Design the sequence.
């Protein structure tokens, strides 16, 4: 492996004689050394777990290990698909993600368009700093804040509601209200951060277009509708498609931090069910099968989204 | 932003009046929305330093009453909370150092066009972004490696992130000219030397960004600790401890050391002080790191 200075030079005579992998190893051994640890991490912590997926097709017993457990074909999947929890989890995962998309997706666009109308730089930067803040907080903290603000007996929002003479609202203790709170908290957490990409896209809009529109007599609304929005359309479409690819995903941490014993109808989603089956009850084969189901659908959605994006002439995702 | 003001002084027309109204509406709306991001913290902070009686009577809104810091004293007296802060700091520091190191070295190596197998290795890394084995295989791997209930299960598995790698690689490609590296190579510098003496010094902002991505991500995550830390209660990071204390409320505060201060018993006050205690580190660094985060996100938006 020891190379002298001249031999590392791509043009040196020594190398042109050798061929194949050895030559590249000799020339670029330092780069391969640099890649060694990252590749080791990827192989051990990302690719080695793929072998664990085999237990979705096996009757996994911890004592027997991966290799010793018996193959059972697709019977684990049949068992999983037949469970009542499964249908509920898939339904909830889709429901929560669709609601997130419907309410969470347009919000950053609207905010970015409004921010674009603000001319006072200081006001704008203060507002942006505040809007970005929730993105930096963990879901545990957001959950804690949520309970502190919205609890029926002592939450400040309900205190205000009661002071105004109305009856308190069980924001997190009733199923339907929980769903609303879950979506609103999610929108609140992500709306500010989501504006960054749109603001960057708006900055790229050619200012001559605005001038031309003004000469033609377009007001602010018309400039927004006919200049800004068409110019950031491709960004919007790309992000929309990217979000469609995430419909089967879902953050375990977000749901788990907001879930409680009183409102359980919508909290059983796929990641939560995987946790309950696998880590809480030790039903590893079933939990793995469920996780694999989610990953495969997720991958298919991403590939589909990428295909659609490219067909529409936008930048792909992959 | 891109709309320049008219240079000539404008008369007070109907149009201008309407414009002003629209402006007022926008300013008001943004003010209201941004207040939803600020006021919850003001409220919870007020709660945490107010006298218990006012909190129980639901008298605290934004201004604390009967200011005292007994709740914070109690938080600091709970050895398990202080311990969890210590765990979080150590884990975050180690995780960030390892993650940043792996990201820099792989991004540099894979941004060199002459490297054979570059596309294949990049593919291997990017593949993990779109298809993961899932919670249970990861858990069983930790089990097989005997890493459950150790420090390592929180430090190693997630410490190399494909997304951060992509940002770093794109940035190296865009900001460091190939000719610079090539001329250094011709001058006889090794790749290690180029990396440490040219690339790293030239890429300080992106390195800061990436290490902050790692640090904040690690600091905030709690699900892996929830999965992997079962018996060793002393290895719970702050967020997990906070989860048990505040969200699940399955654990209570233990004042250790004997001296009971102020006899705070109301869980609301203690929860509030805990939330502020856990948020403060983020709020303190936030104004300084926000800029890096915004830049990183914009680079990340440009695909590889």
Sequence:
């Amino acid at each position: 492996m020891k190379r002298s200075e001249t031999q590392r030079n791509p043009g040196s005579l020594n190398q042109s004689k050798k061929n194949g992998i050895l030559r590249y190893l000799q020339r670029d051994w330092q780069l391969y050394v640099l890649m060694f640890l990252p590749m080791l991490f990827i192989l051990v912590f990302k690719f080695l777990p793929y072998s664990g997926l085999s237990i979705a097709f096996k009757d996994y017993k911890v004592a027997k290990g991966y290799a010793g457990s018996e193959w059972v074909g697709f019977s684990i999947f049949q068992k999983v698909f037949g469970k009542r929890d499964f249908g509920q989890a898939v339904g909830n995962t889709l429901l929560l993600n669709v609601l997130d998309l419907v309410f969470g997706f347009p919000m950053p666009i609207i905010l970015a368009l409004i921010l674009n109308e603000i001319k006072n730089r200081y006001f704008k930067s203060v507002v942006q700093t505040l809007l970005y803040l929730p993105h930096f907080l963990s879901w545990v903290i957001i959950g804690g804040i949520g309970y502190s603000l919205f609890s029926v007996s002592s939450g400040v929002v309900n205190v205000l509601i009661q002071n105004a003479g109305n009856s308190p609202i069980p924001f997190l203790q009733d199923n339907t209200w929980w769903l609303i709170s879950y979506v609103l908290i999610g929108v609140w957490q992500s709306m500010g951060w989501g504006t960054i990409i749109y603001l960057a896209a708006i900055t790229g809009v050619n200012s001559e277009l605005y001038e031309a529109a003004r000469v033609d007599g377009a007001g602010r609304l018309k400039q927004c509708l006919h200049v800004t929005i068409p110019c950031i359309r491709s960004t919007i479409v790309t992000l929309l498609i990217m979000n469609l690819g995430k419909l089967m995903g879902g953050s375990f941490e977000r749901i788990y931090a907001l879930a409680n014993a009183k409102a359980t109808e919508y909290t059983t989603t796929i990641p939560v069910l995987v946790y309950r089956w696998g880590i809480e009850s030790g039903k590893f084969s079933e939990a793995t099968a469920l996780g694999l189901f989610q990953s495969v659908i997720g991958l298919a959605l991403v590939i589909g989204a990428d295909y659609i994006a490219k067909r529409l002439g936008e930048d792909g995702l992959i | 932003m891109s709309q320049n003001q008219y240079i000539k002084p404008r008369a007070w027309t109907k149009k201008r009046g309407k414009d002003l109204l629209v402006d007022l509406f926008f300013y008001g709306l943004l003010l209201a929305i941004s207040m939803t991001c600020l006021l919850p913290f003001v409220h919870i902070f007020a709660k945490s330093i107010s006298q218990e009686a006012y909190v129980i009577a639901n008298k605290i809104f934004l201004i604390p009453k009967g200011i005292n810091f007994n709740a914070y004293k109690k938080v600091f007296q709970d050895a398990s909370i202080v311990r969890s802060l210590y765990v979080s700091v150590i884990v975050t520091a180690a995780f960030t150092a390892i993650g940043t190191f792996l990201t820099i070295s792989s991004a540099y190596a894979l941004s060199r066009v002459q490297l054979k197998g570059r596309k294949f290795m990049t593919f291997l890394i990017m593949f993990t972004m779109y298809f993961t084995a899932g919670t249970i295989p990861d858990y069983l791997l930790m089990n097989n490696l005997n890493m459950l209930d150790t420090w390592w299960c929180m430090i190693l598995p997630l410490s190399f992130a494909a997304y951060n790698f992509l940002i770093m690689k794109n940035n190296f490609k865009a900001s460091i000219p190939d000719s610079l590296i090539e001329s250094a190579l011709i001058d006889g510098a090794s790749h290690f030397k180029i990396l440490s003496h040219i690339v790293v010094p030239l890429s300080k902002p992106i390195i800061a960004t990436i290490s902050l991505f790692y640090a904040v991500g690690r600091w905030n995550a709690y699900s892996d600790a929830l999965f992997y830390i079962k018996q060793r209660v002393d290895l719970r990071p702050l967020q997990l401890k906070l989860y048990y204390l505040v969200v699940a409320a399955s654990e209570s505060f233990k004042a250790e050391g004997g001296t009971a201060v102020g006899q705070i018993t109301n869980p609301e006050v203690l929860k509030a002080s805990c939330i502020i205690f856990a948020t403060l580190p983020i709020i303190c660094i936030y104004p300084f790191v926000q800029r890096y985060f915004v830049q990183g996100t914009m680079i990340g938006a440009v695909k590889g």
Summary: Confidence is low (pLDDT under 50) at residues 1-8, 10-16 of chain A. Chain A touches chain B through 99 residues (CB under 8 Å).
